[in-house]
Design a protein that fits this description.
Length: 259
């Protein structure tokens, strides 16, 4: 399999507004693909098209070669496309372990009657589920918080729980919408390492991020979007020095660099 995700000539309109304009993006297994661009550029809308929240008006989206354009979000998740959200979405009254467990059940093949009658298949799956949750808590350094409600956690830990929940469903494509937003420097460094390790498991990662230091050090390839359109595509070094990118950022409020 050459690409885990193929976005071909995708466009999305909202009442005449062009939110996504003819984007083509291909993500390989194990690749970390960055999507950057000023506020309102269409980045989250693109992710919403890939995860089935929106159906694009034009173009096709393929996951592992299969056309998933317009498929329902839960179907796409079951196939192995999992995401986190720009505004964290967790069950805040539920514990860390329970939230991650919910992710496991995205893909679980259990039928309702297995749970009611506690069949051997159910018991076996529950055991496998707990093992997975324990492994993930270890991986994200969350074990000591296993029984805490996620609503009481720091922002950084909440972001990790959300990512762990996505991984519990065994994704082959992980979609992260601003994973470092609201994190302090140490939390950002920890998260960068975690994302790198996830990609080494051959999981394709597509991430939106405004933290340019993180993007430039972490991603293998980048598409820069402005007003829904691709303005540059290439390796971090290339897009960083692309005059079209510099111009787009200087013309917006996003740029916090003083050069
Ligand atoms: N459901 C919707 N209905 C109408 N317009 C929408 C909808 N969702 C997004 N838009 C518009 O589409 C454009 C792109 O929004 P989007 O959220 O994708 O930007 P973004 O690049 O993720 O920005 P940010 O960096 O601020 O998160 C914006 O003009 C936004 O107002
Ligand atoms: Mg967004």
């Amino acid at each position: 399999m050459k690409y885990v995700l193929e976005i071909d000539n995708v466009s999305k309109f909202f009442h005449g507004l062009v939110a996504i304009d003819d984007l083509t993006i291909k993500v390989k297994p194990g690749q970390i693909y960055g999507i950057i661009g000023p506020n309102g550029a269409g980045k989250t809308t693109l992710f919403n098209c890939v995860t089935g929240i929106y159906t694009p008006e034009q173009g096709t989206i393929k996951y592992k070669g299969e056309d998933i354009t317009g498929m329902q979000p839960h179907k796409i998740a079951q196939k192995g496309v999992l995401r986190t959200f720009q505004n964290i979405r967790l069950f805040s009254d539920m514990s860390v372990a329970e939230n991650i467990m919910a992710g496991y059940h995205t893909k679980s093949k259990q039928k309702w009657y297995h749970a009611i009658f506690h069949t051997p298949a159910y018991k076996k799956d529950e055991k496998a589920a707990w093992k997975k949750v324990e492994e993930l808590m270890e991986f994200f350094n969350l074990t000591h918080l296993a029984t805490n409600p996620t609503g009481d956690l720091s922002y950084g830990n909440q972001r990790k729980v959300e990512m762990a929940r996505a991984l519990a469903a065994n994704p082959e494509l992980l979609i992260l919408d601003e994973p470092a937003a609201g994190l302090n420097e140490n939390e950002t460094i920890e998260l960068t390492e975690i994302i790198r390790k996830i990609s080494q498991m051959d999981i394709g990662i597509m991430m939106i991020e405004h933290d340019m230091e993180m993007v430039m050090s972490l991603t293998d390839y980048i598409t820069v979007i402005n007003f829904g359109k691709e303005i540059s595509q290439g390796e971090p070094n290339f897009v960083q020095n692309d005059p079209r990118v510099i111009e787009a950022y200087i013309g917006s409020d996003d740029d916090e660099e003083d050069e």
